[in-house]
Design brief:
Shape: globular
Distance between the termini: 31 Å
Helix content: over 70%
Low-confidence stretches: 17-21
Order of helices and strands: HHHHHHHHH
Radius of gyration: 19 Å
Number of strands: 0
Length: about 260
């Protein structure tokens, strides 16, 4: 539901004629009224198709880099930024075509019947360029988010007395650190998310990232770059915190260093 609300808020700013102001709660009620409660889970198939393999690629890449460059020590703040950004860039590039489908599904503007059908349609009508539309904006959003997130996450955990805590409380500690890191990282990367959504919803209109930036600033000013920030912060923060909590627990159960 948060993802639907975010995409809808940003999609409204793409329209040539807009009336009034719409907030997250207003749009959620509008979706329920026009499409029923299930409308809040529109695009769940492309979300699964993107998130599940994407998380696997991200954590696998991160683990391999840690094993290669950081064998017996924790990463510094800058190293955390590099590791997180690189792992996310690899994952983002691999999953970008599905990300384009997910964004279009949630906007309600395209009538795709399935993820495969959507990918086939995009490739036939727009070519490879359409499947990778918004690549620059996506990397500018996701890579810094993961880098900043991992930096705050690891540094926050380093400041906590982990040795003195009950092992049963470690998942709560990991989740709390993840929430804190997610909020800060979401705020820092929200502008790139708005730019990415504009480019993926209107690839014929925006051929370069600079065109989308100019349009948003001209019509909405600086505030326009933070449109949809609340639902995105909720979604990304909770998703990242849950993913890292599960990852840390699974690595511990397998006897591996996360």
């Amino acid at each position: 539901p948060e993802s639907i609300s975010r995409s809808s808020l940003q999609f409204l700013s793409c329209l040539p004629f807009r009336s009034g102001r719409a907030g997250m709660v207003t749009l959620l009620f509008r979706v329920v009224r026009t499409e029923s409660l299930l409308g809040l889970w529109k695009g769940v198939s492309p979300s699964f198709a993107r998130c599940i393999p994407g998380v696997g690629i991200y954590f696998s890449t991160l683990y391999m880099m840690k094993q290669k460059f950081l064998v017996d020590r924790s990463p510094t703040a800058l190293e955390s930024v590099f590791l997180g950004a690189t792992a996310r860039a690899v994952s983002g590039i691999c999953m970008l075509p599905v990300t384009v489908v997910k964004t279009r599904y949630e906007s309600g503007r395209f009538g795709y019947g399935s993820v495969y059908g959507a990918l086939k349609n995009i490739y036939q009508t727009e070519g490879a360029r359409g499947m990778f539309s918004g690549l620059t904006a996506t990397l500018l959003r996701d890579a810094p988010f993961s880098g900043i997130y991992l930096m705050f996450y690891t540094q926050t955990k380093n400041f906590t007395p982990q040795d003195q805590l009950d092992p049963m409380l470690m998942p709560l500690l990991n989740f709390g650190c993840g929430i804190f890191a997610g909020i800060l990282a979401s705020l820092a990367t929200q502008p790139a998310d708005v730019i990415k959504t504009h480019m993926q919803l209107s690839p014929q209109k925006y051929h370069r990232t600079s065109q989308a930036i100019a349009f948003i600033y001209k019509d909405f000013g600086l505030v326009g770059f933070f449109r949809g920030g609340v639902p995105r912060a909720l979604r990304r923060t909770l998703m990242a915190a849950m993913a890292w909590t599960v990852y840390e627990q699974m690595m511990e159960k397998m006897g591996l260093k996360s």
